[in-house]
Amino acid sequence: MDLLSPQHIRQFHDDGFFVLPNALPPQDLQDLRGECRRFVEQRDAEMDALGVDQLDLDRRGSRYFVHAYDQSTVARRFLLSGLMAGIARAVLGDEAHLFNEQYVVKAAEQGMKFGWHQDSGFVDYPHRPYLTCWVALDDVTEENGTVYLLPYPRAGTREVVPHTVEAGTNDRIGYTGDDPGDAVVVPAGSIACFSSTVLHRSGPNTTPHVRRVYLAQYSAGPILDATGTAPRHLAIPLP
User: Fold this and answer.
1) Which of 34, 55, 134, 238 would bridge with 85, disulfide CB 3.0–4.6 Å?
2) What is the domain partition of the chain in residue ranges?
3) More confident residue, 2 or 24
4) CATH number for the domain running over 6-222
5) How confident is the model over 190-200, as pLDDT tens digits?
6) Global pTM?
């Protein structure tokens, strides 16, 4: 993995994250964008059929969280690629598994913010921290709602913290301090890699262009459900 250096791994241990600018091959970037468009259109059609403008955390024309693995050969190929397997193994070790994935989309001039949270705050029982790879499908800026990461030393913890549900959005909130975090401002095709215990947030998209991200999450071995009898999401060994 020429993209990764010992400094990246040290930063992950110390701060909980690192960033890889311009990591994706151009064809992968183009293919993932095309699939994103297809899945957003499908989600809108589901809302049309139900006569609603919100499903789960998705809000029509505002923000979308859409899973693709089971319906997209493009997504599966990327998630299990040498690039992503190399990143996951460098951070987690040889027993890395694909745990979860989803597109995260903020519409032009309408995308809502997403409050401070840890990804592990959505797993309501003890589990090993996992790796989130936040893949920018567009140039990301503070104006179009990029992610902000709070380094462990400034957060004061590297453990999972209690989260509360925010009225009106159903967001889980794990931090109410005044530290703004470190903004990830990078070109399309870059990857922010952070632990599931890193507090992070994103702002609204105030630009006239959509902001698309693909999340790929990996674990050091399968993460099971609360009963301990079945995978919580995916549990695909990396090739």
Assistant:
1) 238
2) 6-222
3) 24
4) 2.60.120.620
5) 999 999 999 99
6) 0.92
